[in-house]
């Protein structure tokens, strides 16, 4: 019997030691929670320095309610201090029932790490009280939860400890620990809620002022239009570091910052039993006032942005305008209406010089269309030898000349060796195209109108311009007709523009042999009377509808100007009229025009009238006598023409 008692006592002692050993082992805490491991009851995680503990605890013994969170337990004089609890996923709720429970039964609740996700579950009701919601299924096998020495609970890779998936310092409740931060990715939220009471506060960083913050508060658990707010700043002595939109509490600080559910913001020392060091002097305002301030702030920001955009657009506009003026078109100078065009602009306007209107001694002419202008004629000069500066000066002179019987110059282009002149477009082309073709027929009235208008244009160039301008190439090709068949002289001033010496004009001007005055051949100085001679030759062509230099056979005459001079002397000018008109002409005008033409082609310059006098003669203001037959025509005719003309002259 005694032996049996001794055996039974030994078993009891063994079981007691085993139970106590097992209990101690199960209560022993580490800093790491591995997958599928659970914390329940008095099981906890303890940081390696022993300062922080994760698990169920209470702040005011005797404990009737337990809270799961991170506790500061490093004080020998104070009880555990709750420094992190479960924050709601969002700081505002329309339904307070969705808020997590801060208190729960430690014997029916389990905290675990599963699939890389931390969660607290109430097994009695099969309810998930809280979840970190990291959603890292792909990394769940290598993820562990660790409570660090600064009180930061992290989910990190088991091999690479620097790879963090979640951390409590970025998911704040109502307490900010040293090493923690406030900003866009970490905001404080304090709440108190049970069946009879529900209040919440929310703190955000105010970047408009250094160490600034704004607290929102509502006695309900959701934020609406009746919110209160307060804006303030942390005191300068607090170890806050600013970095852009974030405030960092120095990890060397022994302070913690706490936001209560009633909106009270305070600072105290860890391990000092919550002794208050600072509290924000709260002065609540209605949230509507804050909204007005926010709206005012946003309005200021939007206004500033709008002004900035407007300034940028203005600068871009000015730049484009400068580019347009520099490379596309601009006045030659402030006193000129002549426009400087770019070669690319003119090339586009003429469709790469594809619409050719004609070709003369100075170059080819192309049709074009420029925005802001009527149709234009672009002359592409050839043989230009002047430097660009001198060329521009001559163009400016020509561009200033305005007369109803002169073709208007709109602008020019001088890039590299390219020389382009932009003129007004004349709908009916040149007089040449209407005067000589067999199918063409100009009435006498139109012919006389053309002769008079051309004379007025030349008179303006010779006598009314500041400096006398000699055309040097007066012929039907250079008389253009508008839609009403009104004449306009083209190519005036070209000899000087291209830098040609008058003595070389005979060899450089194409197709002008029938219009050259005797002084061109004899080498005498050239004056405006050379234009008068050319006009007289052209007037004969207007009257007769035939070219002076073409082979002519009328009895024994082979050169039309001699035949015309003789017939004018004989008083039978009607024989010079274009046969296609069938005698339909004003006889008085015909006689006057024939006599004027013969006066204009006299050998001596002094015998030729000025162009102003020619205008007066054509207008009937001045009488026109019968002119003598010019002797110099022998340079262009056969001997029989000259013999007859000599005989006629000797008989006068």
Question: What is the secondary structure topology, with strand pairs?
Answer:
Elements (H helix, E strand, L loop, with lengths): L1 H26 L4 E2 L4 E2 L5 E2 L5 E6 L9 E6 L8 E4 L24 E6 L2 E6 L4 E5 L11 E5 L5 E5 L6 E4 L7 E2 L4 E2 L5 E6 L4 E9 L5 E7 L9 E6 L6 E4 L2 E4 L5 E5 L5 E5 L6 E4 L5 E2 H41 L1 E3 L7 E3 L1 H7 L6 E5 L2 E7 L5 E7 L6 H12 L9 E7 L2 E7 L6 H5 L8 H21 L14 E3 L5 E3 L4 H4 L7 H4 L9 H5 L6 H16 L15 H11 L16 H14 L10 H8 L20 H13 L1
Parallel strand pairs: 26-30
Antiparallel strand pairs: 1-10, 2-7, 3-4, 4-5, 5-6, 7-8, 8-9, 10-11, 11-12, 13-21, 14-20, 15-16, 16-17, 17-18, 18-24, 19-20, 21-22, 22-23, 25-26, 27-28, 28-29, 29-31, 30-31, 32-33
Helix pairs in contact: 6-10, 6-13, 10-12, 11-12
| Proportion in helices | 25-40%
Q: Cα-atom Rg, whole angstroms?
A: 55 Å
Terminal CA distance: 190 Å
**Unreliable runs:** 13-27, 89-101, 500-511, 637-652
Record the strand order, biggest sheet.
Answer: 25-26-30-31-29-28-27
Mean pLDDT comes to 79
What is the C-level CATH assignment of the largest domain?
A: Mainly Alpha
β content, as a range? 15-25%
Q: What name does the CATH topology of the largest domain carry?
A: Transferase(Phosphotransferase), domain 1
Q: How many helices?
A: 14
CATH architecture of the largest domain: Orthogonal Bundle
**What structural class do the secondary elements suggest?**
alpha+beta
Main beta sheet: 7 strands, mixed
State the domain count. 4
The number of distinct β-strands equals 33
Can you tell me the overall shape? rod-shaped
The CATH H-level superfamily of the largest domain is Transferase(Phosphotransferase) domain 1
């Amino acid at each position: 019997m005694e032996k049996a008692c001794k055996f039974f006592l030994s078993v009891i002692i063994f079981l007691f030691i085993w139970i106590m050993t097992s209990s101690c082992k199960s209560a022993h805490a580490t800093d790491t929670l591995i997958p599928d491991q659970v914390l329940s009851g008095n099981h906890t995680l303890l940081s390696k320095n022993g300062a922080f503990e994760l698990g169920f605890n209470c702040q005011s013994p005797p404990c009737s309610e337990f809270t799961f969170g991170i506790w500061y337990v490093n004080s020998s004089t104070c009880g555990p201090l709750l420094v992190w609890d479960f924050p709601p996923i969002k700081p505002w709720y329309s339904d307070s029932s969705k808020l997590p429970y801060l208190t729960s039964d430690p014997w029916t609740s389990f905290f675990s790490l599963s699939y890389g996700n931390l969660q607290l579950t109430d097994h009695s009701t099969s309810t998930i009280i809280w979840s970190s919601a990291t959603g890292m299924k792909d990394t769940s096998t290598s993820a562990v939860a660790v409570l660090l020495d600064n009180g930061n609970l992290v989910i990190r890779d088991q091999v690479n400890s620097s790879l963090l998936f979640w951390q409590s310092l970025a998911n704040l409740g109502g307490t900010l620990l040293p090493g923690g931060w406030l900003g866009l990715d970490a905001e404080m939220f304090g709440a108190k809620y049970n069946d009879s009471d529900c209040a919440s506060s929310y703190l955000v960083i105010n970047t408009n002022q250094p160490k600034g913050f704004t607290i929102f508060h509502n006695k309900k658990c959701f934020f609406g239009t009746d919110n209160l707010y307060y804006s303030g700043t942390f005191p300068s002595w607090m170890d806050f570091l600013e970095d852009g939109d974030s405030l960092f509490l120095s990890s060397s600080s022994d302070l913690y910052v706490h936001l209560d559910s009633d909106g009270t913001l305070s600072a105290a020392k860890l391990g000092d039993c919550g002794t208050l060091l600072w509290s924000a002097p709260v002065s609540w305002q209605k949230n509507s006032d804050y909204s007005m301030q926010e709206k005012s702030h946003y309005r200021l920001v939007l206004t500033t942005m709008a002004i900035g955009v407007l300034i940028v657009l203005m600068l871009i506009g000015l730049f484009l305008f400068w580019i347009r003026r520099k490379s596309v078109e601009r006045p030659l100078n402030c006193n000129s209406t002549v426009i400087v065009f770019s070669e690319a602009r003119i090339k586009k306007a003429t469709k790469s010089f594809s619409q050719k209107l004609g070709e003369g001694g100075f170059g080819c002419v192309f049709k074009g269309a420029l925005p802001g202008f009527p149709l234009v004629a672009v002359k592409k000069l050839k043989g230009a030898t002047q430097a660009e500066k001198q060329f521009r000066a001559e163009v400016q002179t020509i561009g200033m000349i305005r007369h109803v019987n002169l073709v208007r110059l709109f602008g020019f282009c001088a890039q590299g060796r390219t020389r382009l002149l932009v003129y007004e477009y004349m709908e009916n082309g040149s007089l040449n195209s209407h005067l000589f073709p067999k199918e063409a027929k100009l009435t006498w009235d139109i012919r006389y109108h053309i002769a008079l208008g051309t004379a007025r244009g030349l008179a303006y160039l010779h006598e009314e311009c500041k400096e006398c301008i000699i055309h040097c190439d007066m012929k039907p090709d250079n008389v253009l007709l508008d839609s009403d068949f009104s004449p306009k002289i083209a190519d005036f001033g070209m000899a000087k523009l291209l830098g040609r010496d008058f003595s070389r004009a005979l060899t450089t001007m194409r197709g002008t042999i029938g219009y050259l005055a005797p002084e061109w051949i004899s080498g005498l100085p050239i004056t405006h009377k050379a234009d008068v001679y050319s006009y007289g030759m052209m007037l004969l062509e207007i009257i007769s509808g035939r070219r002076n230099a073409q082979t002519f056979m009328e009895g024994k005459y082979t050169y039309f100007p001699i035949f015309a001079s003789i017939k004018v002397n004989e008083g039978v000018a009607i024989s010079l009229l274009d046969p296609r008109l069938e005698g339909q002409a004003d006889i008085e005008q015909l006689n006057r025009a024939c006599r004027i033409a013969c006066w204009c082609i006299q050998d001596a310059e002094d015998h030729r009238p000025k162009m102003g006098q020619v205008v007066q003669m054509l207008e009937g203001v001045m009488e026109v006598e019968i002119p003598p037959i010019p002797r110099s025509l022998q340079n262009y005719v056969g001997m029989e023409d000259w013999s007859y003309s000599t005989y006629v002259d000797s008989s006068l």
